[in-house]
Design a protein that fits this description.
single chain; 117 residues; mainly alpha; binds zinc ion
């Protein structure tokens, strides 16, 4: 299944909605409750951590020659930003959606009349 596609009807979820409302996703086409697969969540988390580690290493090298009282802040701050941004972006572009176990909507029921215009 391609990234951000509803497994029931195939509609594509907006990337911003997948990242912002990842625990409360509802397909706009068929109204099924959707969740992000564990593989996608783990992939996004590890990509973010890798980006954070690389950023920490690069910024530490950059500020190693400049002594200062707050020199330790920049590696931590920038690694945090890199981790957050890369994890969210990875989720936006590579999230695989699945139907949630607590979804009570019948399978393959088209309820497109519920969509406001
Ligand atoms: Zn759907």
């Amino acid at each position: 299944m391609a990234a951000r596609h509803c497994p029931n009807c195939g509609a594509v979820m907006p990337a911003g909605k997948v990242a912002a409302d990842s625990y409360e996703l509802v397909c706009a086409n068929c109204q099924h409750l959707l969740g992000i697969s564990e593989l996608s969540r783990n992939l996004a988390a590890f990509a973010g951590l890798a980006a954070g580690a690389i950023t920490w290493w690069m910024v530490t090298l950059r500020f190693a020659t400049e002594p200062g009282a707050l020199g330790w802040v920049w590696p931590a701050f920038l690694a945090y930003l890199a981790t957050s941004a890369v994890a969210a972006l990875t989720l936006m572009f590579a999230a695989t959606l699945e139907l949630r176990a607590d979804d009570l909507t019948p399978q393959h029921e088209n309820v497109t009349h519920r969509i406001p215009h």
